[in-house]
Write a structure and sequence with these properties.
This protein is mainly alpha-helical. The protein contains 20 helices and no strands. The radius of gyration is 33 Å and the shape is globular.
Length: about 450
């Protein structure tokens, strides 16, 4: 309070000084107390401060004020400020409030620690359950590194689990869903009652020998739980069949087919006919979001192959700027089958085994292709699909919010000017990646295999 009072008197005691000039500090942190100027704040019977004070001319500020009267408001603010400065805080109330804040913080920390320990204990049980849900049986084909793990009994159990979930042959065995169970289980808080109920519904639906895709679409409209999102996306996009017994063979066949395309076409990227396409892809990838993920050389290499092969196999549209952003959500979701990190953007993708990266690359290619099959007119000549969607947006806004529509029309703002990128990139540049993935839970219902007319 003394500091506030001292600053108030700075103007009245300042001589040749100007506002903002550095003043000497007396004592620990307070300016000197001037009894002549602060007489109203001295309580009866109290002794005046003994700090030596060099008295200043009191009338300096009044003279300055009279010369600059147009820049200052006159009034009784001085008396009000001095009265406020004389008020004292209740120390007991402050200490009691601070103590409560510390106690609440400690309780939250203990609760979070307990939840993490509880989730770690349930991880193995959930892994076994999801394995039977996603692929219909409990047969786990051992890979090379898994066999090596089983022969080395001295290795830690945690390392053994990671090797089994990550090291898979290139053209066999679907990804072990223990990785899917690891995804966001060790670092996320416990599921709420509603989330747990939704997860149980997805498990029951996926557990049967033939998945009811229509029912899966209805459940997915409100979002897909993280633990079953990879297998749900593959089913909804039409990449995997509904029959559980056919899924493993389908994965093997489609992955072999993709890398046959790579072997056949990728070396032609520097040919005269294709070098412009490859060059544009190479330029656009560094513009993608999120930045941390796209700056990884391994990710850049994978995305270049996916986009170039798609462009070669779809000559009607070829590669168009904007398609490069559509790989990211599939790639991120499928990476999360094999890692425990909550924020995949900060994960070093090159640390995954080569076989796992090949599976992720092939799965991302085919799922992106399925998505683009339903919106390819967005990228053909004159992009009629985007123009149609922008027109639909304009009609929707005119019905829902006529005032906004009239405002845009009054100022001659065309919807195509701001909504083109929304449609071209499916909002990839507009909202965070975690929100994009949630939106894409619903986008999967709009594939060529699932007409949009019946979407609620």
């Amino acid at each position: 309070m003394a500091s506030d009072a001292g600053r108030k008197q700075f103007w009245k005691r300042s001589g040749a000084k100007v506002p903002g000039s550095i003043q000497h500090v007396y004592g620990a942190q307070h300016p000197p107390f001037d009894p002549l100027l602060h007489g109203t704040l001295i309580k009866p019977g109290s002794k005046p401060p003994t700090t030596p004070v060099k008295l200043k001319k009191v009338s300096t500020f009044q003279e300055f004020e009279s010369n600059t009267s147009d820049a200052w408001d006159l009034g009784d603010d001085d008396d009000e400020l001095l009265a406020i400065a004389a008020e004292n805080l209740n120390t007991e109330v402050v200490m009691e409030t601070a103590h409560k804040v510390i106690q609440n913080h400690s309780k939250l920390q203990e609760q979070h620690k307990f939840q993490e320990e509880h989730l770690q204990e349930e991880k193995q049980v959930e892994s076994a359950e999801l394995s039977s849900v996603a692929y219909g049986d409990n047969r786990l084909v051992k890979s090379v590194s898994e066999g090596h793990t089983s022969s080395s009994s001295d290795n830690a159990s945690e390392n053994s689990s990671m090797q089994r979930s990550q090291s898979l042959p290139q053209t066999s065995t679907p990804p072990l869903v223990s990785g899917m169970a690891d995804y966001n289980t060790s670092v996320t808080p416990a599921l709420t009652e509603r989330e747990a109920s939704r997860l149980d519904k997805f498990k029951q639906l996926l557990a049967g020998p033939n998945t009811d895709l229509e029912e899966l679409r209805k459940l997915s409209w409100s979002g897909i739980p993280k633990r079953v999102r990879p297998i749900a996306w593959k089913l909804l996009s039409g990449y995997l069949p509904a029959n559980v017994d056919r899924r493993e063979s389908t994965l093997q066949r489609k992955r072999k087919e993709y890398f046959a395309f790579v072997e056949q076409y990728y070396d032609s990227r520097n040919d005269e006919n294709h070098q412009d396409t490859y060059r544009q892809i190479h330029i656009d990838i560094p513009r993608m979001s999120p930045e941390v993920l796209r700056l990884q050389p391994k990710v850049t290499e994978i995305f270049e192959r996916i986009l170039f092969i798609w462009a070669i196999r779809h000559p009607a549209s070829g590669y168009v700027q904007g398609i490069n952003d559509l790989v990211t959500p599939f790639f991120v979701v499928f990476v999360c089958e094999y890692i425990e990190e909550e924020v995949v953007e900060n994960f070093d993708v090159s640390s995954l085994p080569e076989e796992v990266l090949q599976n992720i690359e092939a799965d991302s290619y085919w799922c992106m292709s399925k998505l683009l099959d339903g919106i390819q007119d967005n990228y053909t000549f004159a992009q009629p699909g985007i123009q149609k969607k922008v027109k639909m947006l304009e009609e929707l806004v005119s019905r829902i919010d006529e005032q906004v529509h009239r405002h845009l029309d009054l100022h001659e703002v065309k919807y195509l000017q701001f909504a083109f990128r929304w449609m071209n990139n499916l909002l990839m540049r507009e909202v965070p990646l975690r929100c994009i993935i949630r939106l894409w839970d619903t986008y999967q219902l709009h594939t060529k295999e699932a007409p949009t007319d019946n979407v609620p």
